[in-house]
Design a protein that fits this description.
alpha+beta, Aminopeptidase, 2 domains, five-stranded antiparallel sheet, 8 helices, 14 strands, 33% helix
C-alpha cells in the first residue's frame, strides 16, 4: 500500500464524511456504544463545515487516488486542537492514522502554536496508544452526558445570548481559568447565535459557545456553569463533555436525570495549565 497525503478540499467532504461515519460506527459498535456520527450525511455536513473554514487546516490520506482518511487542526485559538481523525475501517492499523497525526502536529509546530490538544474516546485503546507514542500526555478524564435538557432559568444567575460586546469579558474569564483564550471559537458561536453568557451582579461570570459536543464553557463557579447547563434547550450531538474530577458538577447533572454515555480523555502536548475554575471541554479540547 502506497500512502500519500495532501491538503483537503471542500469537494472531499462526501468521501471523507462517509469514512467518518463508517469509522466511528465500526469502533463504537465493536465496544457496545452508540456512534458519535449517526449517518454519512451528518458526517458530510460536519466535515464540509470544517473544510470551508479558513482557520481549520484539513489533510486527507489517499491510496491509489482514493481517500481513505482525514484529519483536522483547529487553528482558531491560542492553542491548536486536533480532530476528528478517521480512517477507513478496512485500512486501519496500516499507518494512515500515524501519518495523519504527524501531518497536523507538524502544521501546529510550523504555525507556532505553544500547545496541541485532543479528546480521545475512552474505549478506543488503539488511539490511546497512538497518542501516547506520539508524545501526548493524559490530562483529564471526561464523561459525555446526555438526556433531556431543562431549558430553565436559575434565580440569581440570568443567562442570555452572548454578543460581540461580551467578547472581552469572556476572553478574560477564559484566560483566568485556562491560561489562554478561545476567542476564535467564541466569535464563531456568537455569529451562529449559539453562545450564551451567565451574569451575577451585572457582570459576566461564565459563557458557553453551546452546551454540546463541539461546544465548550468556562465559568467562575460550578453554580455559574450549572445555570448555563440548566438554561440549555438541548444538548446537540452525542451530548456534552464534563471533567469527571469535578464530582459536584457531574453528580448534579446526574441528579437532574442526565446519563453518562461514555468516558473520554483530554490529552495535550506543550502548553497546559491546570484549570482554575469551572469548565466544560469540547470534543476538540
Amino acid at each position: 500500500m502506497i500512502l500519500s497525503l495532501r491538503r483537503a478540499k471542500v469537494t472531499d467532504a462526501a468521501a471523507a464524511g462517509e469514512i467518518c461515519y463508517q469509522a466511528f460506527k465500526t469502533i463504537a459498535e465493536a465496544h457496545g456504544f452508540p456512534p458519535d456520527c449517526p449517518s454519512a450525511e451528518v458526517g458530510t455536513v460536519l466535515l464540509a463545515g470544517f473544510l470551508s473554514h479558513e482557520q481549520i487546516f484539513a489533510v486527507v490520506a489517499e491510496v491509489d487516488g482514493r481517500i481513505i482518511g482525514s484529519n483536522f487542526l483547529d487553528e482558531r485559538n491560542a492553542v491548536s486542537g486536533v480532530g476528528p481523525i478517521t480512517i477507513d475501517p478496512a485500512l486501519q492499523n496500516d499507518g494512515a492514522g500515524h501519518a495523519l497525526m504527524q501531518a497536523v502536529m507538524r502544521r501546529s509546530q510550523e504555525r507556532g502554536f505553544p500547545g496541541i490538544r485532543l479528546v480521545q474516546a475512552g474505549y478506543h485503546n488503539r488511539s490511546l496508544a497512538l497518542y501516547l507514542k506520539l508524545g501526548f500526555q493524559v490530562r483529564e478524564p471526561l464523561v459525555c452526558l446526555q438526556g433531556r435538557a431543562a431549558g430553565k432559568s436559575t434565580a440569581g444567575y440570568p443567562v442570555r445570548p452572548a454578543t460581540t460586546q461580551d467578547l472581552e469579558a469572556c476572553n478574560r474569564l477564559c484566560l483566568r481559568v485556562h491560561g489562554h483564550e478561545r476567542s476564535g471559537e467564541l466569535a464563531d458561536a456568537i455569529t451562529q447565535g449559539t453562545a450564551r453568557v451567565v451574569e451575577r451582579s451585572g457582570r459576566v461570570t461564565g459563557y458557553a459557545t453551546s452546551i454540546a459536543y463541539f461546544g465548550h464553557a468556562v465559568a467562575e463557579t460550578n453554580d455559574d456553569l450549572k445555570a448555563l447547563i440548566g438554561a440549555a434547550e438541548s444538548f446537540p450531538g452525542p451530548g456534552f463533555l464534563a471533567p469527571t474530577r469535578n464530582t459536584e458538577l457531574v453528580r448534579g447533572c446526574l441528579s437532574e436525570g442526565l446519563r453518562i454515555v461514555h468516558t473520554m480523555t483530554l490529552m495535550t502536548i506543550g502548553l497546559y495549565n491546570s484549570p482554575a475554575g469551572a469548565w466544560l471541554p469540547s470534543i476538540i479540547y
